[in-house]
Amino acid sequence: MNWLTWSLLSAFFAGLTAVLAKVGVTGVDSNLATAVRTTVVLGFAWLVVLLTGVGGEVTGLSRRTWVYLLASGIATGLSWLCYFRALQLGEASRVAPVDKLSVVFVLVLAALFLREPLTLKTGLGAALITAGSVVMALR
Predict the structure, then answer these.
(1) What is the pLDDT of residue 129?
(2) What angle do CA 45, 80, 56 make, to 5 degrees?
(3) Which of 2, 11, 59, 94 is deepest in the core (most CB within 10 A)?
């Protein structure tokens, strides 16, 4: 499978996650719900690593890789805590589109830090995503 297929599967499962999480946070502290979800993700990720036989490669990770993966993990945790709280307080059909503004942040941050091109096409896409998120978030 190519990157597009994997990306579409990711989007589908992210959409499913929002609906399942919205039901899951009902009547539960959002931080506790995030911890439960994260524990499941952790276990599932390590199961995949073990089943694919790449677990031994963990000892070969560089210090730089560890720093960036740890920082990414912290950012993911903060994102999930905020997302679950937003789901608890708002409608999933309004929270998820605002959450997808992450695409716009990726474009800007990738241009600034990774020197990826910010073209007219990506700028227009970012503007459309922003407009769509705003429209969907409004009552």
Answers:
(1) 97
(2) 20
(3) 94
Helix axes of 63-89 and 92-99: crossing angle, nearest 10 degrees: 150
Per-residue pLDDT tens digits for 79-91: 999 999 999 999 9
Please give the angle made by the CA atoms of 67, 96 and 15, to the nearest 5 degrees: 85
Please give the pLDDT value at position 54: 97
Instruction: Report the predicted TM-score, pTM, of the whole model to 2 decimal places.
Output: 0.88
- Scanning the chain, the segments in alpha helix (DSSP H) are 3-24, 30-52, 63-89, 92-99, 102-113, 120-137
Residue 139 has pLDDT above 90, yes or no: no
Rounded to the nearest angstrom, the gap between the alpha carbon of residue 55 and the centroid of all alpha carbons in its chain is 23
Both structure tokens of 87:
């789901």
Q: What is the Cα–Cα distance from 42 to 49, expressed in whole angstroms?
A: 11
105-124 b/e (C-beta count within 10 Å ≥ 16 → b): eebeeeeeeeeeeeeeebee
